[in-house]
Amino acid sequence: MEARAGELHSAALLPDADRGALLEAALADLDRAVAALRSTGATQTSAQAKNDVADSERRLLRTVFQDAPVPLFLLERDGTVRRVNRQAGALLGSSAGYLTGKPFPMFCDLATRATVGSHVAGVFHSGRRQRSRVRLLSGHGPVEVDVTFARIWVTGEPDPLVVAATAPSTREPAAQDLPQQVTATDDAVATVVHRMDVLSTATGMLLDDESFTESVAVRRCARLLAAELADWVFIDLVRDDLLTRNMVIGPDDERSTEVARMLEDLDPAPGTLPALVHASGRSVLQAHLDDLNALGTSPAGPPVCGLIEASSLICVPLDDGERCHGALTLTVSGEQGPFDLMDLGLVERLARNLALVIRAGRRYRRRAMVADRLRAGLLPPELPQIPGAEVAGRHHPATRDTGFGGDFYEVFRTGSGWGLVLGDVCGKGEDAAAVTASAKHGIRLLARWNPKPAEVLSMMNEALIDDERFVTAVMAYLEPREEGLSMTIGSAGHPPPILIRRDGLIRTTSGGGIPLGLFEDDFGVGVEHLDLDPGDTLFLYSDGVPEVSDSAQVRFGLERLIEILAAHADRPVADLAMAVEAALLEFCGGDLRDDVSMLALRVTG
Hints:
- With 605 residues, this protein is an alpha+beta fold.
- It is built from 16 helices and 20 strands.
- The strands form four sheets. It has a five-stranded antiparallel beta sheet with strand order 2-1-5-4-3, sandwiched between helices.
- It comes from Actinoallomurus bryophytorum.
């Protein structure tokens, strides 16, 4: 019998071997071996002899089974794989240990699973051989084979077993089905390179959005995975402490689009795989999906996995290391072959990166909300109108940081005139906002009793000396005169205001001074007295205006600012400020790295 097994094995290696005939011959030899061994066992009388025969029988059967030239699966009555031979493991691209104990229909595509289950049950009860054409889901892709099911009896077993023997399908393969001639090494290298490319692309896409917008990150990640790794991608996120479906992406055809739209409205139910993975925080890889209800059932009743023809599945938690934000699920059909551990590692890494972006995005939004509230309290919603003048202000926050910047401006009434102030606190964030509030309200309060800019700024310097941040500020005190306004400007280390005379002459004021909060004894204020005639314009601005830079790190600068002011000098001051803001945004391509603030006043009478 061993010689016969060797002959069959050698015959299978011939180029023109008839594997169908070899299959029938192997089954016939297997039947004869069982009959011979049963007969031999009946002639033994002593216990020792029976044991020797049993051992010999097992060795012989194991040899015949393992060395058979065709893939063989030994199945129990419920279809569970009891044992596979070497050819069967090679066919499915898996080890015998992985295949053993799993339902044989699990390794078949969805269209033939039910048929295979029926054949196993039928052969077990009737004893008649049955043949069926099956698509097996191997690690190299789907393989179409003819499977012959036969019942056998094994000594010592209370129930018969079923042998499933496979042979290549007799159907002529289409040109696109023919395997490409690549070595196992080339295929492994290509797979690793592809996974590295997917990871690199995903990381780049996630980091490309500096605002960490959650919806953008989720959509980009899902589309990449659907294009490169899976047929279907499900992303479920926690909203109000409930796991809800956020996105479903499948193949790009009309039916799949309708299914995806339906599944997006189907939140993962308790007990489904995404819910279990989210609750446990542990990933799940089902290389061969054995439960079509793993993703729940559709509203119409069929299992979701059956609806999307899933045969292999990965589900991983979206865990950032501090909390789990949801679950990421990928499925493939038999066309792409089953997922493996390398796929699981890749998806886990991507899920971790996506979870970190989700965490950063939510923190970003919380900080943005705080900054908006602070900004609403520190920047006036509208400015009061000064008799004999028109005034307008503009503020544009930095686009690269949600932390509240230190810019502030205000127009306020004093005892006998009006006050203007524009300042900038060093740094960003909540601490800077607190100093901003102190400086703004402090200057306004002090000016009610003493409108002189030098004295107001000096007292404000003393108030801020214990803070860890300094403040640059410029304050103007305006008093009416017979025609126009009289103005006193005090500067504490701030960029000098620009004066635009009605005849077109443009100049900067003297500026100067020391920032508030730096020095207690050596503090000084730069002071200048000016008369403003009707048609004259005063333009105050923060240091973020001239420091705006383009992609080549070229600064906007004071000269460009003066050119913009000259070009729009005859426009209303509100339009003048908006023209400067538009020029800044165009120059930097919308990428403001610091807040910009402007305050413009024009004398009208």
